[in-house]
Structure formats: C-alpha cells, structure tokens
Amino acid sequence: MAGLGLKFLGTSVLAGLLVAGMAMPAVGALGLTAKDTAESFDNIPDDFKTPPLSQASYIYDAKGGVIAKVFDRDRTVLTKDQMAPIMRQAQVDIEDNRFFEHGAIDLKGIIRAASKNAESGSAAQGASTLTQQYVKNVNVEQAGDDQDAFLEATRKSMGRKIQELKYAIKLEEDLSKDQILTNYLNITFYGHQAYGVEAAATRYFSKSAKDLTIPEAAMLAGLVQNPSAYDPVLHPQAAQNRRNTVINKLLEYKHITPQQAKDALASPLGIKYKEPLNGCITAQAGMGFFCDYVRHVVKMDPVFGKTQADRQKLWSQGGLKIYTTIDPEKQAAAYKAVTTKVNPTDSVSAAMTMIKPGTGEILAMAQTRPYGLDAKQNQTVLNLNVDAAMGGGNGFSPGSTFKPILAAAALESGTPITQQYPSEHQIPYPTMTTCNGTWKADGSTVENESSSEVGPYDMKEAMAKSVNTYFVELGKDVGLCPMKQMVNKLGIKTLASGAPLVQQPSSILGAVEVSPMRMAAVYAAFAARGLYCDPIAISSVVGADGKKLAVPQANCTQAMLGTTADGVNTLLKTVIEKGTASNIKINDGREFAGKTGTTDNRYAAWFNGYTPDLATAVWLGGPGGNVSMRNITIGGEYFDSVYGSSGPGPIWQMAMNDAVAGTPKSSFQLVSIPDPATPPGGGNTEPANPAPPAGDGGANGNGATGLINGGFTLPPGVIGGGNGGPGKGGKHH
C-alpha cells in the first residue's frame, strides 16, 4: 500500500505542477520539469518526525497552589474529547472542507485554485490541505526561536512545497484524520502568544476549548488564516466579518441549522480577553524570586540534563508540573515582614530565607523590592537571597553570624566550651595556620565593638556579647583550616560570586560574602543537631508525558557531632536570653536561638535565628551598593545606627511569630555550661544588651575585619557591579 501511495503521490505532484505551471508562470521561471520534480521527490527522506509540542509549565507551592505559569509558547495540549466538536468542524470547514474525503493532497482543490489564479493572473489562492498546513506548522515549531530555521520553514519555494507534500502523505499513512486534526488544533498559532486552541479559547474568551459556542469557535477558526489582520482586540470589525464567513461555511456544509446560523451571526463577538501572563513576574505573595530560583535550578542542575542545551530544551518544551517546597503560609509571613519593616523606596532592602532543618526544604524566600523589570517602580529581578550563579548577586558579608561556625570547629576539635581568653579591647591579628601553611601577622589589628569590652571571657559570654578579640584568639588556637573545613561541610564551598574562599583571620569575623540562603542552611544544620542538608526547592516534577522526573536531592550529611551542635545551640540560646539579641522574642515562648551580625560602617546587618523546626536568615542592607545604615530611616523608623538586633531582628521576629503560630513546639538538647570562677570583664558592669545594643562585634572603625567595602557587591554588568575584588573597606589578607 505504501508503494502505491508513493506512486500516487508522485503522479499527484506532477499533475499539480502541470496545473500550477499553467496558472503560475513563476514555476517555469524556477526551471522545474516533471522529471526534476519526480527525482527530487524520491530523494526526500520520509522519516518525518512530529516533535513534542512546547507547552506551558506550571510551578506549584507545597500545598498545590499555582505559583506561576511559565512558557516559551503558551500552549496546553488537548485530546479530541477535550475540544468542542463545533470547534473541530469550524476549523475544517474554513480551512479544508473536504479534509475527511481526500488524501494528503486535494487534486480538486489544486485544479480549482489554479483555475482561479489563472483567471486573476496572480497566485491569490492556495490549495494546501489541512495535513500540509500541519506539516508546515511542525517545521515552524521545530525552528523555535532560530530565525534562519523559521525563514526556511516558511519559505515559499517549490522544493519546500514538494517536501511538505511527501511528509503529508507519510502522515496520512501513519495517523487517522481525527488524530491529524487534533494535532493541527494543538499546534496552530491563533495570535497574542496563543498556540493551540486551548490557549486561544482562554486568551479571547476566558474559557476552555471544550466550552466554546458556535460564534466563538467560528471566530477562532477564522483567525488561523491571518491572526494579525483578524485580531479581535485590534480589529474587531474585521474579526467579526471573518467569523461570519466561517458561520456561513458551517451552514453551507450543513453542520449547523439555519436558525443556529442566524443566532450566531446576530451575536456580538463577546471577547473576554485575558492578557498572556507569563513567567515569574506573575507570581503572587512575593514568590517571583523563588519562582526564578526554581527556573535556575531546572536550567543548571545536571539531574535535569547532562548539558546546558538539554536542560534548556526541557524548560523550553515545557509541559512540566513542578511541585516545590515553598510553604504558602510561611512565605506570606516572610513577605509581610520584609515589606512591612522596610519600604521598597528605602535606600536599603531586606531579604529572608526559611529552611526546614533536617530536610533542606526551602519554605520561604522573600525580599522587600518586588520582582520585575521596572526600576522606576523599584522592581528588580536580582534575587538577593541566593548566589550569583542562581540569579543572585555576589553576596553579603555576614559579620558576626559567622562566629558560630568557628565555635563549631573548635568544639569539634576538642576545645572545651568553657575556654577562656584575655580578650583585650584591641589586639593585633596573630599568625595563624592554614590548610596550606601559615598566615603571617602583618601588624593589622582587631578590636571589640565597645572599649568597655575587656576580658577575660569564656565562650558563652563571648558569644553572647559577640566579642571580636575572643574569637580571633580562639581562631589562633584552632587554626584556619578546621574552620574552612567546617564552612565547607556546612555547604559554603565558594563565595556567593563563585570565587574561592580565602583562608584569612578576618573570615572568622565574617569577611566573606555569602547569601542569606546559605546562612539559613548553616543555621538549619545547627538546629538539626549537625545534620547539614543542601537547600532544595523542588519536591517532584511530572513531565509532559506524565512520567515523574528525577529531582535534586538534599544530600544530607553529618557536618559535626550531635553534641557539638548541642553546644553551639546552647551558646546561641544565650545570645537571645542575655546577649546582643535579648530584645527578640517569640510570642508563644517556644525555644529558639540565634546570632546577630553587623559589618564595617553598618553596610549590612543580620539576624540568623532558629527553632528546632525552622531556620530563618534575615539580611538588611543596600541592594545595589554600600549604604551606611547610620542616621537612616527604614520603613518609616529612624535609626542613628542599625544593629543586627534593631534592624533585621524585628523583621525576623515578625515573620517567625506568624510562621510558627499554632505549630507544635520542640526543644533543643542543651549542654550545661558552668559560669567562670572569676567574673569576666575586669568588673565591667555594662549590661549585655544596652539600648542601643552593645553591638554585634562589627564596625571596628579601622576596617580590620577585612570586609569588601563592608557588604554587598554585584556581578559584572549588573547595576554597575564590579568584580567583587578587595575594595577600600579595610585590609585584606
């Protein structure tokens, strides 16, 4: 049968060309003969492949709510039964009314078109069957955004026409007429970014294709010939005239009754247009940044494809159902806090990530300024919560919130939690061992926040007061290598920019640039008794074929002994009980711990806090450069100097109170830390957290903490971002 079909097709092609030659002199100009055409026809491979159609993908929150619909092409593929029968009939009647009677080629149509064209002296009428049109649409679909491939797929040439004819006969051998029509209705472009009849029905009538009425179906069917000229939004009269032509065709071919035709012709267009909303910009409750992070995960993680091209193809073809870890209630709490306490118009911004300890699940990701491209509306697409490779900037210096990592390394290596040091107000940075050798003292100094902070201190009080010189002395004994190894175990393998971590004493005090999400993961590991998990955003993905895809895993590992984490948790619980964060509370009295942090010149302030069940990192600072948070108004409140406890602390408190309300309470496994025999501080009686707070161990004045301009830098080309190299904010070692 196939052989007979091909012979018939060859005959049909030649017959068509002879007719076309009579009607269109251009064929003669091409120099084509029947022999040439037959040979070229035989040389065309018949392995025509119909690609999977690009569709919209949907991203869902942890409770099944839609975060966003994302697409390269807005399309939802339907089955025959999901389309209104009148829609299918209208498309056939206006495009190819003999579709169910002829084969891949309609010889009667060719002869009729040739006759009409000969009469008019032009090539005004074509004779492509609906199957041939489908083949052309497949070629356009395969071209995608490749302009050269698109021009080739739409080029009006005899060679292209012959190729389409051969592919059409192949399709009619492989598929039923109903299948071809269904495929056609799914692939066809209807204007306004609507590909396929379902997207078109939604776009123009705000309904599904299965619910289309006669006049609605007629209007959509009429659009296909020229979506621009018959655009019902821009050219309603032309659209109505074209719709009426289709209605009359339905009547002519007896697919509707005269009364149905009369009623349909009398009806208004009834357009209920829905703007094609695409991508993360449509996400609600501030989820645009998380949505963008999910997009980066799919495009970057090898689990979704070995090469970048493979992953891009998966994303572009779409049809994915991406279920994420985001908790809508916790997201709402985070979004409310960062937008209530800080205004989008403020010179500074806030960012917050919440992570579930022991799982790595990202439960919330929010920042003050809205997701979008309009800078005049204070919008941004820069995700301040994540690393540069995932759509973020070059990170922020975490200040004293890095000190607990050194404490963990010290306890893990056998340092007693009662360890004391002189902790003088100011000391020179001492020589320290590194993984590769030695960092040699160069005369630079480090000092405590207040001149009254003079030891001796033990680890508990030093952590509560965030005493810089204590932790530098601790670092000398422990060495920079164990701290770097602990930083790595807690998921920080590079700076947020992707640059390598440098082993230097100032890193003890946070002279590195990291993202809030990374710090939330660190503190989640403390909460989970030392179990570190990579942050994960995606719980499952269902492909366009309905099959589940592999997703990135949390890869949980024990970064430290449980008893080490218990010690850190006990130290950080002291911070909120009688240390620099004693003003921060959770209303229901549940147990929590945390650490404040500020950087030189108050360029950044942090509070990273956690319960056993929820870890939350909050950063506050200038989103596009260094803004000194002194004598500044934030969220309508004036600050003479921002501290971790006074800036990000209240943001954390507002979010956590909403996030944990009504959830079960858990407790830490704490360790007993005896008080030192001799009262520390040489008789210093200043309270641990005066108002304003005593500080977070930042802002040395002489820049000795080695912060890169004290805070945030941007990737090259983003809002004037530089290369993240050493700046003018202190000495770098």
Automatic annotation (TrEMBL):
Reactions accelerated catalytically: Preferential cleavage: (Ac)2-L-Lys-D-Ala-|-D-Ala. Also transpeptidation of peptidyl-alanyl moieties that are N-acyl substituents of D-alanine; [GlcNAc-(1->4)-Mur2Ac(oyl-L-Ala-gamma-D-Glu-L-Lys-D-Ala-D-Ala)](n)-di-trans,octa-cis-undecaprenyl diphosphate + beta-D-GlcNAc-(1->4)-Mur2Ac(oyl-L-Ala-gamma-D-Glu-L-Lys-D-Ala-D-Ala)-di-trans,octa-cis-undecaprenyl diphosphate = [GlcNAc-(1->4)-Mur2Ac(oyl-L-Ala-gamma-D-Glu-L-Lys-D-Ala-D-Ala)](n+1)-di-trans,octa-cis-undecaprenyl diphosphate + di-trans,octa-cis-undecaprenyl diphosphate + H(+)
Biased composition (Gly residues): 695-704
Region described as Disordered: spans on this chain: 669-709
Positions of the Penicillin-binding protein transpeptidase domain: 351-615
Glycosyl transferase family domain sequence ranges: 66-250
Keywords, alphabetical: Carboxypeptidase, Glycosyltransferase, Hydrolase, Multifunctional enzyme, Protease, Transferase
InterPro entries: Beta-lactam/transpept-like, Glyco_trans_51, Glycosyltr_51/Transpeptidase, Lysozyme-like_dom_sf, PBP_transglycosylase, PCN-bd_Tpept
Domain of life from the UniProt record: Bacteria
Keyword Protease in record: yes
Protein's name according to its UniProt entry: Transglycosylase domain-containing protein
Species the sequence originates in: Kitasatospora cystarginea
